[in-house]
Amino acid sequence: MTPPRLLDIRGLTITLPQRDRRITAVSGVDLEVERGEILGLVGESGSGKSLSMLAVLGLLPRSAKVGGSVRLDGEEILGAPERRLRKLRGKRVGMVFQDPMTALDPVMTVGAQLIETLRIHEPGLSRSLARRRAIDLLGQVAIAAPEQRIDQYPHEFSGGMRQRVVIAMAIANDPELLIADEPTTALDVTIQAQIVELLERLRRERNLGLVLITHDLGLIAGLADKVTILYSGAIVERGPVFDIFANSHHPYTRGLLRAMPGAEAEGERLVAIPGTPPSPASRPEGCPFHPRCRLAVPRCSAEAPAFRWFGQSMAACHLAEEAARMELRETAHGV
Amino acid sequence: MTRTLIRRILMMPFLVLGIVTVAFMLSQITRGDPLAALIGERQMGNPTIVAAAKAKWGLDRSLPERYAIYLGNLVQGDMGTSFRTRQPVASDLSRRLPATLELVVAAVLIGGVTGVFLGVLAAKYRDTIVDTVVRLLALTGSSVPMFWLGLLVLFIFSVRLGILPGPGRLDTRTAAPEFVTGFFTIDSLLAGQFAKFREALAHLVLPASVLGWTVTGIVARLVRASMIDVMSQDFVLAARAKGAGAWRVLLNHGLRNALIPTLTILGFTFAYLITGAVLTETIFSWPGIGSYAVDAARSLDYPAIIGVTIVGGFAFLIANLLTDIAYAIVDPRVRTGGA
């Protein structure tokens, strides 16, 4: 028998109340992460990426109803009692938030916040030892002069440095799984690379499983082992990162790749996906992407596509074969 | 921040001068002749007496002259003589201010503590029955007339149940403790008179609670609102994601941040109550500034009116300064001057 996966999510479904009805924000999402593996979770705003990860830690508002299964190291944690979840949060699962400007308490020193993180899970830990460990953690995330920095407040740190502090808090109790929710979105480009490097190093050194939530495909390409693309609360395509980038079978993924700056050759231009993603409240029938899809046929609006395997990846599209032949690039004269 | 504070303190004499000037001028443009109040309506027809009284009280001088004299005296701590009590205003005020301060300090303490407590509860159990009850309580705090509430509690606790004393700072036959701070509770303790301390404290309970109740209402609503605001912020989610329990998140992260706006209101309330405790002081026969101000206004006692106005304005200045200092202690972003 193979050892259980670090994180194994099956059929995760989240509904939220909206006025007099419930809307399905996430439906039937499957995700797996092994130790030492980086999973990229990609989607536009509102696609349910962050909701799914908050659901893992039981951090959704009480009004949210969650179904399916979330196993951590084989143990079912979905719907586990708060006391159980509290022991997991920050201990076995660390979380890095999008905006380091707001993820730290402005009225506590970074040291106090780090020490709090340590002592929540190790109440017997002495203050002086906790402090030493906190200084050590700041050093591990490459913050210079941690002995001095530890007594400073978040506003005395730059954005990149704050994100390092947030990461230090996330890894403080040596978790097995790290969930990073758009960890670089709020940062300058030059700082982004440093944070990515830091995450990659931590993954290597600690054999962390890492879920990287992002809408930056470039980040995924450089970092992730596998990628899952969400659209309007459901998975549209998933697979090893190379397969997806080289040979995607979903028009939405194709569209994202075409819209990705940086990879285009001279004379080519970026092509945006027309329209905006539907809100979960007004999700169209059939394939949710069909109103924006260049390939859509009548069947797409009538029948929701099932997943089909293509080599090691899978995609939910009636026209996957045609999608795979779609030109990734168009010349400026073309179209 | 230190520099800001020093600048604020250096500014204070000018602000005080402004307050004095405004108070003085306002008293000059009000209608009503203080002479009539001073010597009586009947004597107003007697030019000799009018002239003598005018000369005695300096009312025969021009306005700038009187202003200059007043300022000169004020610098020496002389706020003139009350038309009504025939006592120096400064000594009247210094006897009455501690009474008001003791009452207001107790009221703000009671109101602050209960307000924060209720506000936290309401935020924690938002949209439940707890929240509704707290909001109702807070509403009564700011809408029930204080004179009515004062009479009601006097009737219940003093007359009916007899567990708390009636009006006044002490029982009628008890002598005031030796003046040190003017706070009867503190002075009696300093003198080692524990029975007197208990008596002073018992007398303080009702008026301070009635006055504090309005503070409770204001603070509870503010704490509830700012708690709810703070609790929706990322760092609260981050704290939960580290495994912090609900109460730890609420108090350690939520309340600490929510207290910052609350401080402003507490400081403001404190200053406001110095002169705003009139009704409570009247009902509970509390010999403070508020009742003094009312008496002064009734009898066109200008020196006393100006004196009270200056004290009230000064209270705002001090309260603002203390609020700023408290801000610096609570909010590190203010302390280092950055953001």
From TrEMBL, chain A:
Domain of life: Bacteria
Record's bilayer topology term: Peripheral membrane protein
Keywords: ATP-binding, Cell membrane, Membrane, Nucleotide-binding, Transport
Listed GO CC annotations: plasma membrane
A GO biological-process term: transmembrane transport
Molecular functions per Gene Ontology: ATP binding; ATP hydrolysis activity
Localization of this protein: Cell inner membrane
Classification via CDD domains: ABC_NikE_OppD_transporters (cd03257)
Keyword Transport: yes
Record domain ABC transporter: where: 9-257
Entry keyword RNA-binding: no
Protein family (similarity comment): Belongs to the ABC transporter superfamily.
NCBIfam families: oligo_HPY (TIGR01727)
Protein's recorded name: ABC transporter ATP-binding protein
Organism: Jiella endophytica
Source lineage: Bacteria, Pseudomonadati, Pseudomonadota, Alphaproteobacteria, Hyphomicrobiales
TrEMBL record, chain B:
Segments passing through the bilayer: 103-122, 134-157, 200-223, 258-284, 304-330
Topology of this chain in the membrane: Multi-pass membrane protein
UniProt keyword tRNA-binding present: no
Residue span(s) of domain ABC transmembrane type-1: 97-323
Any single GO BP term: transmembrane transport
Record localization: Cell membrane
PANTHER family: DIPEPTIDE TRANSPORT SYSTEM PERMEASE PROTEIN DPPB-RELATED (PTHR43163)
Name assigned to this protein: ABC transporter permease
Source organism of the structure: Jiella endophytica
